Each structure stands twice: as structure tokens, then as C-alpha cells.
Amino acid sequence: MLPTESYVRCAELLLDGFPDRKAKLERVRDTYREHNERCYGLYQKLIEQGVAREIARGVLPLSMYTEWYWKVDLHNLFHFLKLRMDPHAQLEVRAYGEAMAAFVKEHVPLAWEAFENDNLMGTFLSRDEKAVLRPEGRDAQVAALRALHERGYGRRRLMEVCRKLDLDEGLVDEIQPPGPGAGA
User: Fold this and answer.
1) What is the mean pLDDT of residues 32-60?
2) CB contact set of 83 (below 8 Å; sequence gap of 6+)
3) Mapping DSSP to helix (H, G, I), strand (E, B) and coil, where does residue 118 land?
4) Has residue 95 got a pLDDT over 70?
5) 134: which DSSP letter?
6) 127: phi > 0 → left, psi -120 to 50 → alpha, else beta; which?
7) How far is the CA of 81 from the CAs of 99, 110, 111, 153, in angstroms?
8) From 27, 38, 84, 138, the catalytic residue
9) Mean pLDDT, to the nearest integer, of 103-132?
10) How many CA atoms lie within 13 A of 95 on its CB side?
11) Residue among 135, 128, 122 nearest 168 (CA)
12) How far is the C-alpha of 104 from the C-alpha of 115, rounded, in Å?
């Protein structure tokens, strides 16, 4: 794949004052273009000869984008996005993840909101951190769970919080008694 037009324009602006460097950039760009065109021609020739696309693709340079299709469930897609959107991921990988995330957010907004809240913006605690942050005393624990309930946490999520913080799951009954529709 050749550098994007915006990248080329930016490079040209930077190199306007350096005609020898600008000429060198143009030669490099032409070399890339010629090489990619030759490789793509070979790829097409292999396909015409009956070679499977996934095998023929081996002659394409790494700088050339390919198109692919895949099926994935939301659980694994969210895991994939969490890795690619991590602040430690390479810039290009993050950009790809963010573009995919925009698509996912548009098509499954409620699932995206839960993923964003619980995974992207959530955090994991060590045993020591949980011990320090766990509310002391039954009244404080009920108050903490009640605050989460007021933020929309249903019975099932409150039970999950109790398990995470090693709280008595029976505290949830004081906030939302078990019954029909209590699992939300």
C-alpha cells in the first residue's frame, strides 16, 4: 500500500524547501508503486493459474492492504478490541481498533456501553486493593451496594460485585429482594 495522499501532501509541504529531498521522496514513492504493481500482477497471474487466494497472497508485500471477511461473536470481538485499543498497543493497531469500535458501537450500542463501562473503563484489583477498598461494616456495605443499584445495577450485577469484593451476597436481598425480574 502506498502512503496516503494526506501523508504525501504533508511530506511534500515539509520538503518544499529541500528540492533534492523532494526528488528523492518521489523516486522512493515511484519505486514502491512499481514494486507493488509487479507483486499484484504476479498475485493475479497465480490466481488465474488456479492457485488459492490465501496461497497466492504470499507474494504480496507487507505494505499492501488486503481485504478479508470473518465471523465473530461479541465476546471474542470485545476481547480483540480490548487488546487493540490498549494504550500500550502500537499507534496503527489502536487506530484500526478504534475504527472497528466505532462500527460496533453503532450496531450494538447497549452491548458497547456495557463493554466500555466494565472492560475499557473498568479496572482489576489485587487482593490487597480489594481489602483496603471493601466497605467496613454491614451498613457501609449495604450503602455501597445501594449506590450501585441507584446507578442501574440489577440483582445479578450486585451479586457479581459482592463476589468481587468478598461481601456477603445476602446483602443484595436488602436492596433488591429476589423475585420475578430480579436477575437484571
Assistant:
1) 93
2) 89, 97
3) helix
4) yes
5) S
6) alpha
7) 10, 16, 13, 25
8) 84
9) 87
10) 3
11) 135
12) 11
Average pLDDT over residues 82-92: 91
Predicted confidence band of residue 10 (pLDDT cuts 50, 70, 90): low
Rounded Cα distance between 160 and 146, Å, is 14
Cell of 111: 452491548
| % of the chain at pLDDT higher than 90 | 40
**Cβ atoms of 167 and 134 closer than 8 Å:** yes
Active site residue 146: no
pLDDT for 1 beyond 60: no
* Secondary structure tally for the chain: helices H, strands E: 10, 0
Task: Of 55, 38, 37, 36, give the one whose Cα is nearest residue 46.
Answer: 55
Q: Report, in this order, helix, strand and coil percent for the chain, each rounded to 5.
A: 65, 0, 35
Distant-in-sequence, close-in-space partners of 130: CB < 8 Å, separation ≥ 6: 164, 165, 166
Alpha-carbon gap, residue 168 to 165, rounded angstroms: 9
Tell which residue, 56, 33, 36, 28, has the closest CA to residue 44: 56
Query: How large is the C-alpha radius of gyration of the chain?
Result: 27
Mean pLDDT of all residues in 85-114: 93
Query: Which of 21 and 32 is assigned the larger pLDDT?
Result: 32
